[in-house]
Amino acid sequence: xxxxxxxxxxxxxxxxxxxxxxxxxxxxxxxxxxxxxxxxxxxxxxxxxxxxxxxxxxxxxxxxxxxxxxxxxxxxxxxxxxxxxxxxxxxxxxxxxxxxxxxxxxxxxxxxxxxxxxxxxxxxxxxxxxxxxxxxxxxxxxxxxxxxxxxxxxxxxxxxxxxxxxxxxxxxxxxxxxxxxxxxxxxxxxxxxxxxxxxxxxxxxxxxxxxxxxxxxxxxxxxxxxxxxxxxxxxxxxxxxxxxxxxxxxxxxxxxxxxxxxxxxxxxxxxxxxxxxxxxxxxxxxxxxxxxxxxxxxxxxxxxxxxxxxxxxxxxxxxxxxxxxxxxxxxxxxxxxxxxxxxxxxxxxxxxxxxxxxxxxxxxxxxxxxxxxxxxxxxxxxxxxxxxxxxxxxxxxxxxx
Length: 401
What we know:
By secondary structure, the chain is α/β, with parallel strands linked by helices. The protein contains 15 helices and 14 strands. α4 (118-127) packs parallel to α5 (142-150).
């Protein structure tokens, strides 16, 4: 007669560090962190170290500090000690981008940029030995820079890098020198990092992100609910001049005046610039995920104008739904997605924007072929089981030393 079964050992502990976290937070790296944390919670006891902020512009504390259980993940929130005045920060930072900088200036930049959360770093330092690995999301911010100083021994960095002025600061050379492994979102991101920093043979994966969209979005219901009876292109995300939206709007205005039968342009997401007053442009506000996916599926194209992207979840969701992308060629990542998938077009100026959009609007057969290519690309490259397998390999590599 066999004896009682031995109790299962507790799962290994895994920490994640990110500047914002929660269902109300929609940023790219923050959404990635939450998606990975929730899916790895079946294999690990996951603890997220984050702030009480939901708004990356001010870093104002909006959520209570302390511990919260969220979809199987323990979330530790720490208060941000200094709110950010974005105009004052930009006045300080912009001169640094065009001249040589000193270390004190760069450290001042890091603190002013925020979120300034010394309590988070202190707690991470005190508890670092509890975790098999600590995964940091986004190289740029204080929690990662100072957190990697405090706990580099089993660190994985998900840098979400794009080519931006602060990347040349010496403090970020130190940041990229500390992790034991790296998870990149795309091949161009990995190439950029390797061109700037010596990774010294440390483990690295192009881990990507898993993409999930509904099988049959309610496109007709979306059109009825929003009274959108004309064909349209779509922008989804933070509507911000810094994301290329001012240029996109100028190019769209030119397109509308040039091409007969021009479509509308719908904007969905948080508004971080004055609401556009251009004929044919409609701002629908922030929509639920179901409404967003229905809007994407019904669009002639999803426009991604940002020159600074490390992945673009929006573009991959559009591909998954069979909708072509129209992207800025100033983003190596976006252009690479379109070239490798053959699921989108890219533009470098207003004339190319108009011609490409007109092709997608008038060429139904082309749109369908690009759409099928996009679906196949996402299935092959961005399925969650493959993505999580890459994360587990990196976690196991740093946990074993």
